[in-house]
Write a structure and sequence with these properties.
Layout: H1 21-24, H2 28-41, E1 44-47, E2 61-64, H3 67-74, E3 80-81, H4 94-101, H5 110-121, H6 124-151, E4 155-157, H7 158-163, H8 165-175, H9 182-192, H10 207-231, H11 237-243, H12 253-284, H13 286-294, H14 299-310, E5 315-320, E6 324-326, E7 329-331, E8 336-340, H15 341-344, H16 380-397, E9 401-403, E10 408-409, E11 418-420, E12 422-425
Parallel strand pairs: 2-8
Antiparallel strand pairs: 1-2, 3-5, 4-12, 5-8, 6-7, 9-12, 10-11
Helix pairs in contact: 4-12, 6-8, 6-16, 8-12, 9-10, 9-12, 10-11, 10-12, 12-14, 12-16, 14-16
Length: about 425
């Protein structure tokens, strides 16, 4: 489906369907113009749920596009729960919901217990080791990218050669995933976050089976690693997760497997897309690129602006547990709300000139890592570090990187993904 804007920028909201996967593959300019119109005219717009093979069609959902509404819902987890499904618009069986969502699709008190165990595993020593891993991984990946360019007449793919391997290797190093398993880890995580994209899901009549098989493969890998670490501990996060206790409780092997899938979703794919979207944004705004390259002091604010601008995770779902009202909108128990972070991150009520990329923007209270409440991204610190190190290394090691084509965008509403971004290193002959 194509939604056109008029010369004045007006959008026909009656023609918009946020459940149409094709709409999300359209021009970002149309997407953000639509979000702006929804904020102004229909901040709690209702949409029918997408039709998926094998899954009953649900009652529909409200799209939350204003920053204040998203913040109000996020800060009331008892009223707007995650446990009925945070990463899927349709309802799925409870065991699958938790398996694929892990902490994201849990409510307190269980959410709090598991988050405490996971947080305790991230000791200061582990965090320091992670920062060392990030530096080493980024340096090696960019060295390999230049070799690839040399073998291909200067041509590279920003996603395959830079954005994808960096967070994947950091997470696999962190968890102790063996080298021979990593290509499969990337492939299966791509399937889980495909949004049903036909390039990644061959059988369009049964995408659910593809999601299930991908999750089962990743879970089986992690369960094997967890069992090995109980027998032979290693200096990695898997060992920390299987041995850490809070109030006498440890994570089960299934909980660890589910958390691994979450890491691949929240820590791998999202950082990968922030990198690729960030490279694209700097290509489209060369004056901002030059400004950041010349001033390492901009690293902190620039990273926050890249996350705001790209909003790698587009939405999360919440479900009302009772009747009530939020900012003048009446709702009933069972109503679904899609928290559109990508829309809230461009709300002019919060951000001055929100359609301007400003790498010095400060303050920058974006919701790219989530909003207020218990579900703020556990890995935000690591993601920020990966992005800062990656872009600084790109400026230093690949200053001749030049985007030479349009991005091939993922047909997904959930992740603001880029499958391919053609580029070249102009210094390679």
């Amino acid at each position: 489906m194509t939604v056109e804007t008029s010369p004045s920028g007006a959008v026909d909201l009656d023609a918009v369907d946020l459940s149409d996967r094709d709409w999300w593959a359209g021009p970002p300019s149309v997407r953000y113009a639509t979000f702006a119109a929804l904020r102004r005219e229909r901040p709690f717009a209702f949409f029918a749920e997408p039709e998926l093979p094998g899954i009953p069609v649900g009652p529909g959902y409200r799209a939350v596009t204003r920053y204040s509404d998203l913040e109000a819902i996020s800060s009331q987890p008892a009223v707007f729960c995650s446990g009925r499904g945070a990463v899927s618009i349709p309802d799925v069986p409870a065991d699958l919901n938790e398996f694929y969502g892990s902490l994201i699709s849990m409510d307190d008190p269980r959410h709090a217990k598991i988050r405490r165990i996971v947080s305790k595993a991230f000791t200061p020593r582990m965090l320091e080791q992670l920062l060392d891993w990030v530096r080493d991984v980024v340096a090696d990946v960019l060295t390999r990218a230049r070799r690839t360019a040399a073998a291909q007449g200067g041509a590279i793919d920003v996603v395959a050669d830079i954005a994808a391997p960096i967070p994947l290797r950091v997470i696999c190093d962190m968890m102790g995933v063996p080298e021979e398993a990593r290509a499969n880890v990337l492939a299966q995580s791509n399937v889980i976050l495909s949004g049903g994209d036909p390039e990644l899901i061959e059988d369009q009549d049964d995408p659910v089976s593809a999601f299930l098989m991908a999750g089962m493969e990743l879970a089986a890998l992690m369960e094997r690693l967890a069992a090995e670490r109980l027998e032979r501990p290693q200096p990695d996060l898997t060992t920390a997760l299987v041995t850490t206790e809070v109030d006498g409780e440890r994570l089960s092997s299934q909980e660890i497997a589910s958390f691994f899938i979450l890491l691949l979703v929240a820590g791998n794919e999202t950082t990968r897309n922030a990198i690729s979207q960030g490279v694209l944004a700097l290509h489209q705004h060369p004056e901002q690129r030059a400004r950041w390259a010349a001033d390492p002091g901009l690293d902190r604010t620039a990273v926050e602006e890249i996350v705001r601008w790209s909003s790698p995770v587009t939405w999360m779902r919440r479900t009302a547990t009772q009747d009530g009202e939020v900012n003048g909108h009446r709702f009933r128990a069972g109503d679904k709300f899609l928290l559109l972070y990508a829309a809230a991150n461009r709300d002019p009520a919060v951000f001055r000139d929100p359609e301007v990329l400003d790498l010095a923007r400060d303050p920058n209270p974006h919701v790219g890592f989530g909003s207020k409440g218990p579900h703020f991204c556990l890995g935000a610190h690591l993601a920020r570090r990966e992005l800062a190190v990656t872009f600084r290394a790109l400026f230093d090691r690949l200053p001749d990187l030049e985007v030479i084509g349009e991005p091939d965008r993922l047909r997904s509403s959930f992740v603001n993904g880029v499958k391919r971004l053609p580029a070249r290193l102009t210094g390679v002959r």
